[in-house]
Design a protein that fits this description.
The chain is flat. The longest helix has about 35 residues. The chain has 18 helices and 18 strands. Helix 5 packs across helix 6 and helix 12 packs parallel to helix 14. The chain is an alpha/beta fold. A 6-stranded mixed sheet has the order 5-6-7-3-8-9, with helices on both faces. The two termini are about 20 Å apart.
Length: about 525
């Protein structure tokens, strides 16, 4: 289906990979991993022929159709959500124009024509609209949203509509760049189960370890300018990579010992007449050796110990008789909830059920119409939102912002924490005022870690983090001594941290005193929320 041979690509004078080879066959599910900047998205661009390699070849079977989901949504005009998902006013007219151009040029047997024709047929199928609606429902849309103008929706929701269109077209090879970024938990689980039954091949870039563990059967890592293949899911890849490193390190050390012993013999006897020829023979033996490079150790998650927060009361916070509505839209009516000290609670439920609103009520950042909110004794509450950036001092550098949050923190400790959350070298001297939204979100997250509250409220804290940073955050929160309430769509993150689940649905909050798997076992919540989960 797709064969890459001896590929080389440099960007800005830096070689991303060379002599790289990769093959994907029909039906295979492959993850492409590597640190930020390794060249994962560049490789996608090369496969899509949006860029050209410096050397090597990329070959696709001429009948293979390719679909691509980028990280950011494409711009939309006046199309409805359903129009985007069916391609009626975007993709379908574009394909028709291209087919006419190729027919006029007489290129009706080229690979581009065959691919465009297959995609056009899929979107022009009488069943395409019904399939699009099924995909939209699975990805969290309500029926009433189908005819809304897509431009009224957030970028994340527009991305879901584009993903629905790709699934309707059902290309032979699906390229997904961080497909879980804009999904809530239930939509992610629906997509996960759908892709397990997807008839085509998948090549994905993802920071979601649990998602990859469930879907992929191969992992290709871009490391040290090579593309290295591993069999199995992401967890199997980690185990194999560690074993490979230990094996290569042992081989390197053994060779260095051998070289040292030979060199010592040469140095000792090269001037001794009776041993000179023997010494020269050993010197030539050294010169003929194919030297083993010392392997770089695999990048490990940074282990950061969150300082102990001040001790709070047994009840971290209590809500009594809360009535909350946005205009005429009621969210909660008579909500009672108590969060006990030391609990690690995840909020789950369909999109729009009120999870983020509940977190904001607990944080005291929204006004409710009726009821009482009582923080516990000595409560120090911290609320982490992806969109809360006003707390950053625009006159501070990134490093100064962290240091001012925790005066007892040493500069080397601050640098280490910043590095583990993707702030590299000179970036720590950037003013906070010029940071991107994702960078501001990560910096706010670090501020909570170095000066923790005893009640930590977190809304999607793993967004904007790579897989190693997610693991660093997970390890830190596992050792956190305070109370944690969070929303996340990262199943691995949830499974590692949550000891209690609050299911938010229909204005009701129902507690489950167990981890996430216990909640799924007891409720079958996913099936109730989304219905059928198989492809086709």
């Amino acid at each position: 289906m797709l064969t890459i041979r001896d590929l080389k690509k440099s960007v800005g004078g830096r070689t991303l990979f060379e002599n790289a080879s990769l093959q994907i066959n029909y039906g295979e599910r492959v993850a492409l991993v590597g640190p930020n900047g390794a060249g994962k998205s560049t490789l996608f661009s090369l496969i899509l022929k949006r860029d050209v390699p410096d050397a090597g070849t990329i070959e696709r079977d001429e009948w293979t159709t390719v679909g691509f989901l980028p990280q950011e949504a494409e711009a939309v005009g006046d199309e409805t959500v359903l129009d985007v998902a069916t391609g009626r006013h975007g993709e379908l007219p574009r394909l028709e124009r291209r087919l006419h151009e190729l027919e006029a040029a007489g290129d009706v047997s080229c690979a581009e024509y065959l691919e465009a024709h297959a995609k056009h047929d899929a979107l022009n199928d009488p069943e395409a609209e019904a399939r699009a609606k099924k995909m939209l429902r699975g990805l969290g849309y309500r029926e009433g949203d189908f005819l809304r103008p897509a431009k009224e929706m957030s970028g994340g929701w527009i991305m879901r509509a584009h993903l629905a269109r790709l699934l309707v077209m059902e290309p032979d090879l699906l390229l997904l760049d961080e497909p879980t970024n804009h999904l809530d938990l239930l939509s992610l689980l629906w997509l996960q189960r759908y892709l397990k039954n997807y008839p085509g091949a998948l090549l994905m870039i993802s920071h979601d370890r649990g998602f990859m563990d469930e879907i992929v059967g191969q992992v290709h890592e871009i490391s040290e300018r090579k593309v290295i293949a591993y069999t199995g899911n992401y967890t199997a890849f980690l185990e194999q990579r560690e074993a490979n490193y230990e094996r290569q390190l042992a081989a390197y050390k053994n060779q260095q010992k051998e070289i040292q012993a030979l060199q010592e013999f040469v140095d000792r006897f090269r001037s001794v007449t009776s041993k000179a020829s023997q010494a020269m023979s050993k010197l030539k033996q050294i010169e003929r050796m194919e030297l083993i490079e010392k392997p770089l150790p695999p990048r490990k998650p940074f282990r950061f110990q969150i300082p102990p927060p001040p001790r709070g009361g047994q009840r971290a916070i209590t809500l009594t008789g809360i009535h909350m509505a946005y205009g005429t839209h009621p969210v909660y009516a008579g909500l009672d909830l108590t969060i006990e000290r030391g609990e690690r609670t995840v909020l789950v439920g369909p999109n729009g059920a009120g999870k983020s609103t509940l977190l904001k009520i607990l944080a005291g950042v929204v006004e409710f119409q009726q009821g009482e909110r009582v923080p516990g004794h000595n409560a120090k509450i911290g609320y982490f939102s992806q969109h809360r950036t006003a707390t950053l001092n625009p006159n501070h550098t990134v490093l100064e912002e962290v240091m001012s949050s925790a005066p007892a923190l040493r500069e080397d400790e601050a640098r280490a924490v910043l590095g583990s959350f993707l702030f590299r070298k000179e970036e720590i001297y950037k003013p906070t005022s010029v940071l991107s939204g994702g960078e501001k979100s990560r910096l706010n997250l670090i501020k909570f870690l170095v000066d923790p509250p005893n009640l930590l409220l977190m809304d999607e804290p793993t967004t904007h983090l790579d897989i190693h940073s997610v693991e660093s955050l997970t390890l830190a929160l596992e050792r956190y001594e305070g109370t944690l309430v969070f929303i996340s769509h990262d199943v691995h993150f949830i499974r590692k941290l949550a000891t209690k689940v609050l299911h938010v649905s229909g204005g009701q909050v129902r507690p489950y005193a167990g981890g996430y798997d216990y909640f799924l076992e007891k409720t079958g919540a996913l099936d109730d929320e989304r219905g059928a989960l198989t492809a086709g």
